Amino acid sequence: MNIKIKNRCPWTAGNEFNIKYHDEEWGVPVHDDRKLFEFLVLDAFQAGLTWLTILKKRENFRKAFDNFDPVKVSKYDEGKKLALMKDEGIIRNRLKIEAAVINAAKFIEVQKEFGSFDKYIWSFTGGKTIVNKWKNQKDVPAFTPESDAMSKDLKKRGFKFVGTTICYAFMQAAGMVNDHVVDCFRYEEL
Fold it and tell me: Which residues is 46 bridged to in the sheet?
């Protein structure tokens, strides 16, 4: 019996959460506004933590944040924010919870201005995926001129927790860049 082992990006490190996310989602172009809002929220919560920490709590975040409905999240009052601070299933960080609520309201403003958040956010890559050709994981940057521009514009619009590194992680998650290393099986698939 000949079993072929798939080459993956090294960051998956054999972890089942990382592998599933890597194989099914990471780098796949996302054009659904609710999914883009989900990544915006999750990437903000990931600041200072590992993505694995977020992946393990993702379903809890989904429940806690009304399935990432920006309209509902934008209306969270102090009582709801306090309840989130007590929710052991998520990252209980007051600034990040506040940011999610603020970002939901700003997200809706962008949707109104551009017709969709998708149309706005993808403008930073000219509407298409930037395909990189990294041979080693260590070559993948933490930020780029595109993530710098995205961060600057989001901040100008009042978004919180949108530094250039967070923006680049968002771009990777949403498939705005293909940062799979070239020998990863997903590189060619995407």
Answer: none
